[in-house]
Design goal:
The structure is a homodimer. Chain A is of the alpha/beta class and about 325 residues long. Chain A is built from eleven helices and 14 strands. Chain A has a seven-stranded parallel beta sheet, with helices on both faces. Chain A has a four-stranded mixed beta sheet with strand order 8-9-10-11. The radius of gyration of chain A is 22 Å and the shape is globular. Chain A starts with a strand and ends with a helix.
Chain lengths: ~325, ~325
């Protein structure tokens, strides 16, 4: 029997908890420990038999961990942790600030090469699985157009923006793809779609005592960048309803490529996700790619990589022979 | 400027014609020639400036062709041509007899290794893109079930079976996925579906003069393997209607993975194709993978490969930097 892939988790928020759960579904992997910047005593894992360590002590685990899954945020955690940890460990992360991927890639690549490690960056569903489908779409149908729709899903950034409006006590915001726009794309129309035509935004708000609903609504729907360019609906609800109906983190979306082949026929390729927990699904993607990072390193590769560099077979615990026999 | 990838086509049926057309959509490729077992004088290409050669002469093109795209059939052509040609050329083919893939892989692999070439087998949409999505689905959601539905699409094998029925002059058969079954899968029900519940079959038949419609219909719907296990509809039409409405070769289908992550939330991953020309779309997939075969060989790889072994980035004419910047 081959030995299990030894995994470490850095950061224990929603994503870290999801990775812990996902590893239990993958018998070829073993969770060695969780590393946190908090006091380890204050962090309670779902499985209390797994040790929690201070992130300061991680250097002493070189050689005891095959892959580190970095579960921190793209704004404050990963820009520092990604390059530093890639020097000493093979890593997988979900860096998702699209505009900064090139500079983040370069920083991680330099350290991973210097340390002889493999670092898989920007893994998840977007960036990640959606990116792969955008690539396949244009490689197979070079003449055409690609459309990405998000939702229905909870947007963390937009929820935070609503929460900053004076008078708002609690808030969630759902991004809703326009069914009409999706239908037009599916019909092969290749429509030009404005921001307003692609998505709607729906907010659920609990007001602070004495706040004016009309003022709060106006402040939300006219907010530049976040809401002004969209059709936005605002619902005012009470705190109990918020807790009961809006604590899940659903998300998903569609990548649709519509195009024509050389002699004229049109074709539509559609990829969609309907996720009942955005962080848990992202965690499961990270765990599958941790297997790939381990194998790339075993094959002698070094440096930063993205989902574009990973052959699908590396994600599966099955042997190439079994994959050809069972899934091809 | 880098030089173009020099491509040869073996076999000039629907698939070969599609490859010729697809290459015109990919400016980094150049069609060197078409090779045929027929008399080359009798083969007229869409672009008459491209030479047609006898397949017997192909050995003299070693060094002048980077990748051969094999456009023959899986039953009679590829079992012989695949291994033979992989000895001297990098190849891509669409071998699609699922049950025989392991033995075909072994035969091609032996020759490709002996010749130091790369041979990509079983490329297209099923096997091919659908296979990749089956693999991704179970790697990311290990607890769940995968469903493949085909259609609406013209089935060559079933059309041929109808044509063999006494009294049938012309016939086409469409495979139609059950919308009800697809909806149940999308809802995350994980249903157990019988053959009859997954697909329906619809036949359009032109009768020979004097044939008995009721007898023909009975012979079709009770035909073992092909129709007996399905709900089959038979429409009798005249020859003009057949020519006008049933000469296209649409196809497509769905791969749906439904499963749950470690803490219980359920998720649905769906991939679907709606193709107005099955052979043209398959050809476009072959051409994108020809680029990958060329690059794998440039990277020093040797032997048979499948879509499971090809990193997505190798399919695109864009550089890794541009892919990360534009599509990730």
């Amino acid at each position: 029997m081959t030995s299990k892939i030894r995994v470490g988790i850095v950061g224990y928020g929603n994503l870290g908890r999801g990775v812990e759960a996902a590893i239990t579904q993958n018998p070829d992997m073993r969770l060695v420990g969780v590393f946190t910047r908090r006091d380890p005593e204050t962090v309670t894992l779902a499985d209390p038999s797994i040790p929690v360590h201070s992130l300061d002590r991680i250097e002493s685990f070189v050689g005891a961990i095959d892959v580190l899954i970095l579960c921190g945020g793209s704004r404050n955690d990963l820009p520092e942790q990604g390059p530093t940890l890639a020097r000493r460990f093979c890593t997988v992360d979900s860096f998702d600030t699209h505009a900064r991927i090139p500079e983040y890639f370069a920083a991680v690549d330099e350290q991973a090469r210097a340390g002889g490690k493999v670092a898989l960056i920007s893994v998840g569903w977007d960036p990640g699985l959606f990116s792969i489908n955008r690539l396949f779409g244009e490689a197979i149908l070079p003449e055409g157009a690609t459309y990405t729709f998000w939702g229905k899903g909870l947007s963390q950034g937009h929820s935070d923006a609503v929460r900053r409006v004076p008078g708002v006590k609690m808030a969630v915001q759902y991004t809703i793809p326009s069914q009409e726009a999706i239908e037009r794309v599916r019909q092969g129309e290749l429509p030009e779609l404005t921001t307003r035509e692609r998505h709607q935004r729906e907010c659920f708000v609990v007001l602070q005592e004495g706040a004016d609903a009309a003022e709060v609504k106006e402040a939300i729907v006219t907010m530049p960048d976040y809401f002004a360019d969209y059709d936005t609906t605002v619902h005012f609800i009470d705190e109990d309803t918020m807790q009961r109906d809006h604590s899940a983190m659903p998300h998903g979306g569609f990548v649709i490529r519509s195009g024509k082949t050389g002699n004229g026929p049109t074709h539509v390729i559609e990829y969609s996700l309907a996720l009942n927990s955005n962080p848990e699904f992202t965690s499961s993607v990270l765990v599958a790619y941790a297997r790939a990072a381990y194998r790339l390193h075993q094959n002698g590769e070094q440096g930063a990589r993205t989902v574009f560099d990973v052959a699908p077979g590396l994600l599966s615990p099955k042997s190439p022979e079994d994959l050809r026999k069972e899934l091809l």
